[in-house]
Amino acid sequence: MSAMAACGDSPMAPQQQSIDRVAAARVVPAVTDSRVRLAVGVVNVVVRERIVHDLTELENALINGDGQKARFHVRVLGTVISDYRAQQGSTTNDGPDVTGIVLMLRAVSQIVDAGFELPLSL
Q: In whole angstroms, what separates CA 81 from the centre of its chain?
């Protein structure tokens, strides 16, 4: 156990890149809303579960001030949504829910500097 603690304290240990906790706290309600209300509207069950998982992880990262983890989940969500939109096109009724999630990701991306560039529509 002490060896594990020593490794975590070493200068070579991975470092969390912190974010502005006040700014992160302002967008947490939007992430929560996306997870609880918007994600359930995604028609594809596998995609929905992945989005809910990553929104949960994003929410936790923002609450804990973990910028690296938050950026990772913003990028994963962006990729999942982009691929989903390309696959589905406009054939599903979940467009408004997905667009709401994209808007939230844009706001979070500005705070965590994730470089999120997914367009609102295809």
A: 11
